[in-house]
Specification:
The chain is mainly beta. Helices cover about 5% and strands about 40% of the residues. A hairpin with a 6-residue loop joins strand 7 and strand 8.
Length: about 220
């Protein structure tokens, strides 16, 4: 199981998502690779990395992606963003079996749900998803699959995403989590993870294969 120390950064209360790369640069936060190819029938491996820090009340996440083709069909939250060029952050804030899937396509469209299994998951309330601030170098307008090459996505993710839990801060916490890159309906489908997943068929809804984030 991979373990990642997550640094706290001190920022003002009005963080704009486009400021996140500079904030993380100034804090010396390094990138981590999303490069585990867990299933041989899907060998394509775009170059994908992420970095994460936290503030008093939010995660700051930046993804970097370099892939052959890119698609953003979905422009409204709660859409099937995993079929687009998509990056994902799954996490378990407690030991009660619940985990959250925060999935974001390359233009910042969000899907956020909670549950104990893949089936029957509960959508986050609109006010929760609306609180997630997003900035993509590809803008925020949908487009068909095309050769886009490199893109970056920055997210300001308040702890209120844990809408079935009461999480006020992360200081001293350990969080089980995994990060993913997928594109189920792209010309070349792919399913990459940060922490390895040792099962027969692609499935990201496997908290038993989460790594661990340590908030220092």
């Amino acid at each position: 199981m991979k373990l990642l120390d997550v640094k706290k950064v001190n920022v003002g209360t009005q963080v704009r998502p486009e400021q996140i790369p500079e904030i993380l640069d100034n804090a010396g936060v390094s990138f981590n690779s999303i490069s585990e190819v867990n299933w041989n029938e899907f060998p394509y491996k775009p170059e994908v990395s992420f970095r994460i820090a936290y503030t008093d009340d939010a995660f700051l996440i930046q993804y970097l992606v370099d892939e052959e083709t890119t698609r953003a069909k979905y422009g409204a939250d709660r859409g099937s963003v995993w079929t687009d060029s998509c990056v994902e952050f799954f996490s378990s804030p407690a030991d009660d079996g619940y985990y959250y899937n925060l999935e974001t396509n390359c233009i910042g469209t969000v899907l956020l749900c909670c549950g104990k299994n893949r089936e029957g998951r509960e959508y986050a309330p609109t006010e929760v998803t609306d609180s997630i601030l997003r900035y993509s170098t590809l803008g925020n307008k949908p487009f068909d699959e095309t050769v886009k090459g490199q893109w970056s996505l920055s997210l300001f993710v308040p702890f209120k995403i844990y809408f079935k839990h009461n999480i006020n801060n992360m200081v001293g916490r350990n969080l089980k989590a995994n990060f993913y890159k997928c594109g189920d309906e792209l010309k070349t489908p792919h399913f990459l993870s940060w922490n390895p997943i040792e099962i027969e068929k692609p499935d990201f809804h496997r908290p038993d294969y989460f790594g661990e984030l340590k908030f220092v």
